[in-house]
Design a protein that fits this description.
The chain is built from five helices and 26 strands. The chain starts with a helix and ends with a strand.
């Protein structure tokens, strides 16, 4: 009798637990382009119950109360609080619109030629800063784009930052690369030497890839497509950050970020610096490099704003110039490098690159009338360095 009573009580408690669960469903979409918002976090307020939206923006959440509030958060969107009320144990919220929260200033976005209307015939893909920080690691910046359909990016030269990218079969000389709306392709051949821009992986707020002749401004080589890199603006909140990264093959990276917040004189200043050193992924592709990014901004009044940014990455790294044969690759492995030797314990790579190309841009934004914006940009870039093969 005692066992039957205990079993009955347990079943009643289990039934009570099951029936106390309520189901809330909904679908998240972007307010501007009506596209689904995937991987958003939906949490019941006052509870640890949560869910994540799928690739179609849809979510299903089991909640503890018949009525309550859901908190919805997604990177790049403003947080929302949605009230729900269940009927017969469930609630269908329907379509929930999320308002985008841009990483960069609207003026910078306009100057950089980013596409915001997804109804445009141009094929567009965007990579956010969180993805860059968490997935790129010690790889060259273009490799964060390799999962985008139509984009092919690989390491070349084997050294730190050495990479090659193509869009829809067009090489880098036919792909326009812009930094805050300013072309950074080499003037003499249209190429981009990514090892000269090591600091971009830390400073980038987002990267947008447009495939095919697109809508970018001030570009001369966007036949295959364009890559728009938008850097972080000066932070409005005071604070700082320190980071340390260590790879399995010994490369180390230390990063420091400092933000003044908005000061009494109206200026906001942000600084980000990093130091990288290590033996390299490929044999003898050692690297020693620094990177720095300085951003200043001031809103003089409702019509005038000034933004100044300085970016640079002095570095020296070994390379692998001679390609491996299939036999060498099978015998020694793909990390083998036949471009180097040693003397008295000192490694000497016959192929080496050393360069520093600071990039200074000054942008002024003016709103002379409602609905009318005027942007002026002045930039200076001067590179020094070279390479050796001996």
């Amino acid at each position: 009798m005692t066992r039957k009573l205990s079993l009955t009580m347990g079943l009643l408690l289990l039934a009570g637990s099951v029936f106390s669960q309520f189901i809330v469903r909904g679908r998240l979409t972007d307010l501007q382009n009506n596209k689904p918002v995937a991987l958003a976090h939906i949490v019941e307020d006052g509870s640890k119950k949560g869910s994540i939206s799928n690739q179609s923006g849809e979510f299903v959440l089991k909640v503890e109360h018949p009525t309550g509030t859901l908190r919805i958060q997604s990177l790049g969107y403003m947080a929302e609080e949605i009230f729900y009320k269940t009927k017969n144990g469930s609630c269908q919220l329907g379509n929930i619109l999320l308002k985008p929260q841009a990483y960069s200033l609207d003026e910078i976005t306009i100057t950089a030629g980013l596409v915001t209307d997804q109804r445009s015939p141009v094929s567009v893909s965007t990579v956010r800063s969180k993805t860059i920080r968490t997935e790129l690691g010690d790889q060259p910046l273009p490799l964060i784009l390799q999962d985008i359909p139509g984009v092919y990016s690989i390491r070349n030269g084997g050294g730190s930052g050495d990479a090659q990218m193509s869009i829809r079969g067009f090489g880098q000389e036919n792909v326009s690369v812009l930094l805050n709306g300013i072309p950074i392709n080499g003037v003499e051949n249209g190429l981009v030497y990514w090892s000269n821009w090591l600091g971009l992986s830390d400073a980038a707020a987002e990267i947008q890839v447009q495939k095919g002749p697109g809508l970018v401004h001030a570009t001369i080589s966007a036949v295959g497509g364009s890559v728009n890199i938008i850097t972080e603006p000066a932070k409005k909140k005071k604070g700082g950050m320190f980071g340390y990264q260590l790879t399995s093959y010994g490369n180390q990276k230390m990063t420091v970020a400092l933000n003044s917040g908005k000061m009494e004189n109206g200026w906001s200043v942000s600084f980000l610096g990093s130091h990288t050193r290590g033996p390299g992924y490929i044999d003898a592709t050692y690297v020693t490099g620094w990177s720095y990014y300085l951003a200043l901004s001031k809103q003089f009044n409702t019509k005038n704003k000034l933004v100044i940014s300085l970016l640079g990455a002095p570095q020296r790294h070994g390379q692998r110039t001679l390609k491996l044969s299939a036999e060498e690759n099978e015998l020694y492995g793909y990390r083998y490098n036949k471009d180097w030797g040693s003397y008295n314990g000192q490694i000497n790579n016959a192929s080496e690159n050393f360069y520093h190309k600071p990039f200074l841009s000054i942008n002024h934004y003016l709103k002379p009338a409602p609905g009318l914006k005027l942007a002026n940009s002045l930039y200076v870039s001067y590179g020094t360095g070279g390479g050796k093969w001996s």
